[in-house]
Fold these 4 entries.
Entry 1:
Amino acid sequence: LRIGPHKYDPDPGFGRLNNIIFKNITVEGNVANNWLEGWNGNHRIEGVVFDNLQINGQHITSAEQMHLKINAHVGPVVFR
């Protein structure tokens, strides 16, 4: 998930992403280069929960385990 400019969005504003739950997701295979990136203090990503995320049979409990890069305009991110 990223907030920022791109060529496909005609809207000049960026908005916010709040209270997102990824639940009961199972992934098999190579997982690399995942991002949570807000744009600035007014255009943040907040309240992300990964509930029962499994990658290659392993229960994921941290951003590091899923190669998730989180910038300063994101938080909190919870793994359970």
Entry 2:
Amino acid sequence: TPVTATYSPEFTKVTPTGTGATSTGPQGVPQTGTPIFAGGDPLVPIDETVEPTFADGSKQKTIPGQGTYTITPNGIVTFTPEKQFVGKPDPISVKRVDKNGTPVTATYS
């Protein structure tokens, strides 16, 4: 007697997460921070072979009248202020991707 069965896989969306970083310091001194990223599932971690960038894909961004942000391959963001700048500079978005290629961003300010 023949018997048939079906197999219907279903896939759920995996969404990675990002947690921003902040720092505070004296005028004229560079500051650093490292946003933290996590995969949305243990089977789909953040892809460590893809270096973090700013949201536009760059590794350096200058904000006129404020200073310059740079990012290292391990995700440390440095803000070097202009000598006379005081206050809160515009925050910067850092982008990573998970093993599926799903992008995720977090800010540093």
Entry 3:
Amino acid sequence: YYTDVFERHSLDYRGFVVSEKAGAEKPDPQIFQAFLEKREKPAEKFVYFGNYVDRDKGAEKVVMDFVWVKQFHTFDSSTEEKPQIDQLNYRNVKDALNKIS
């Protein structure tokens, strides 16, 4: 499914990691580590945008930054401590990245 979506939008999906294939589920840092192993840059160069704070902030365990996307809010998931955006769009992502760097 994911590769079809990426191909339809001409996006490069090499290195895309699916938890079932990695043998770990969030917040286990192994899933985020599997993502990093497919890249040639340190974890500090990546930001994980997610909607489920308790699971997605596991990215921080491998030194990736985490931004909470409230647009896709998941049950009982919230944080005031982490960077957050209301909606996943270019401007909000750019603003979040500027706040992190």
Entry 4:
Amino acid sequence: MLEKINQTAEYLRSRVAQMPTTAIILGTGLGPLVDHITEKQFIPYSEIPNFPVSTVEGHSGNLIFGKLGNKPVIAMQGRFHYYEGYDMKTVTFPVRVMRALGVETLIVSNAAGGMNKDFRVGDVRVITDHINLFPEN
């Protein structure tokens, strides 16, 4: 696994001049955030060695390097899910690669429900715990 992580990181370093220390994994609801990233460099997952391909409709399948405001970022436009048939090592592979690239801050967005009646669609919440129903952990 470490060999694959390093191989993928080296490939990305060869394609991108400035490596950001912040990454964002965009869930379906935050996909339009890509429109606010400037100086974009798209790298399709299909071109990245060892990267899986997202099969979820609406997940574009691109790694995007650019700037959000003045901050250099990496954005995952689409991700991989356990329910797509991937094992957890594959699901977490991009995060491991980003760490190998020097990412120190990771923001992950997703669509999640809650029991609070005051929650509304589109509310931003910080999730501090969850019920893990996956057999792999």
